[in-house]
Write a structure and sequence with these properties.
The protein has two domains: about 5-25 and about 265-350 and about 360-390, Lyase, Ornithine Decarboxylase, Chain A, domain 1; about 45-260, TIM Barrel, CATH 3.20.20. Helices cover about 30% and strands about 25% of the residues. The chain contains 13 helices and 18 strands. The protein has helices at about 5-15, 30-45, 65, 80-90, 100-110, 120-130, 165-170, 195-210, 230-245, 255-260, 285-290, 290-295, 390; strands at about 25-30, 50-55, 70-75, 90-95, 115, 135-140, 180-185, 215-220, 250, 265-275, 280, 300-305, 305-310, 315-325, 330-335, 345-350, 370-375, 380-385. The structure holds pyridoxal-5'-phosphate. The site of pyridoxal-5'-phosphate has 15 residues, from helix 10.
Length: about 400
């Protein structure tokens, strides 16, 4: 298999010469299939099911391809559930921190698996969910953090509203599990299988005795399975042991890992200015089009003329890449290049399939980037373009 970073630079010329106006997202089928093969093979060897967590990626034009490899989708609410049900097929799962009465009836018709975040929510919707044939689960809080860097992504932090703690489950009494088919936890974020193994041990210590009566256990998302250094063997051994010991089916519901390193955002330099440093202003925005750059935060890789931009001061020309919005902090970062940037240059941001399109907004009236696919044939095909109406429509 060609190494990922070579493959990426090889496909850049196809994106640059495309006639699609910038900014646009493009998902590469070849890179996506690499991930999907890894996931499918892992699911097969572990004997588990893998669902796409749509909150990371909902570009349904490409669901027909993904659905050949994965077992279904999970949703964070009614709309994602409808999308998965209508466009992906397979199993439709849902978890929401709380369901509204207005929506629950419809949810219970669409979703085969419904996961509740509290004892009160389970009691409230129990009858309707069971009578519509849903398999019901409880989200557990194992109260075991395995991450330090990203507090906002840690559902086990002190005071977390996500998941039922052991004390709260105990307090509800054993009868509360009547009608419950499975347990769920989601505590990881971009992590390896050692963090999962550790969490499973903490989970079993408190909740293991309940598992014998369950049909399934859902290990949530945050498993970075398609990352080069991910220890798949360890994941498989954790899953195999859980299945043997408790006789449960296992679900994984990664979002990121499905589309990790498969997407790009192609943008163009609109102006270059000087103020003690060099600023390049581009037609894409961190705040609007890659909000995790500011929120998480992280620094996306940039490719220009087939080469990766470097950390500042490594190559001769250091430039701050910022957006055309009025927000002073709408800056992607400082990068260095071999040559000065000029108006009209195209910059390709890497790893832009996940948590990007789904988080887009039109702050400042910014245009939403178009959405494209690079097919296996190497054709870059425009799937969707947005215009003024997409901005206006949501505002009154
Ligand atoms: C966010 C989320 C996922 C997917 O997480 P990734 O980090 O994208 O893999 C899965 N399940 C639940 C409940 C989530 O909240």
């Amino acid at each position: 298999m060609r190494d990922y970073s070579t493959l990426k630079t090889e496909l850049i010329p196809d994106l640059i010469k495309s006639s699609i106006p910038t900014p646009f997202y493009v998902v590469d089928e070849e890179l996506l299939i690499r991930n999907l093969e890894i996931l499918k093979n892992t699911a097969k060897r572990a004997g588990c099911k893998i669902l796409l967590a749509q909150k990371a990626f909902s570009m349904f034009a490409i669901y027909p391809l993904i659905s050949k490899y994965l077992d279904g989708t999970t949703a964070s609410g009614l709309y994602e559930a409808k999308l998965g049900h209508d466009e992906f097929g397979g199993e439709t799962h849902i978890f929401s921190a709380a369901y509204s009465e207005r929506e629950f009836e419809e949810i219970s018709h669409i979703c085969g698996h419904v996961i509740f975040n509290s004892v009160a929510q389970w009691k409230k919707y129990r009858d309707i969910a069971l009578s519509n044939g849903c398999e019901c689960g409880l989200r557990i809080n194992p109260e075991h953090s395995t991450q330090e860097g990203h507090a906002i992504y840690d559902p086990c932090s002190f005071g977390s509203r996500l998941g039922i703690t052991y004390d709260n489950l105990k307090k509800a009494g054993d009868d509360i599990l009547n009608g419950i088919s499975g347990l769920h936890f989601h505590t990881l974020c971009e992590q390896n299988s050692d963090a999962l193994e550790e969490t499973v041990m903490a989970f079993e210590e408190k909740f293991g005795s309940y598992l014998y009566n369950m049909k399934w256990l859902n290990l949530g998302g945050g498993h970075h399975i398609t990352r080069a250094d991910y220890d798949i063997e360890r994941l498989i051994s954790v899953i195999t042991r859980l299945k043997q010991k408790y006789g449960v089916e296992i679900y994984l519901e990664p979002g990121e890992a499905v589309v990790l390193n498969t997407g790009f955002l192609v943008s163009e330099v609109l102006d270059v200015t000087e103020n003690g440093i060099t600023n390049a202003i581009i037609d894409a925005s961190a705040a609007c089009h890659m909000p995790d750059v500011l929120e998480m935060p992280y620094r996306p890789e940039i490719i220009k003329d087939g080469k990766y931009a470097e950390e500042p001061e490594i190559l001769p020309y250091t430039v701050r890449i910022g957006s055309a919005t009025c927000l002073a902090g709408d800056v992607i970062g400082d990068y260095s290049f071999e040559k000065p940037l000029k108006i009209g240059d195209k910059l390709v941001f890497c790893d832009m399939a996940l948590y990007s399109m789904v988080k887009n907004n039109t702050f400042n009236g910014m245009k939403l980037p178009s959405i494209a696919v690079r097919r296996l044939s190497r054709d870059v095909e425009l799937i969707k373009e947005f215009g003024y109406d997409d901005f206006k429509m949501r505002l009154s």
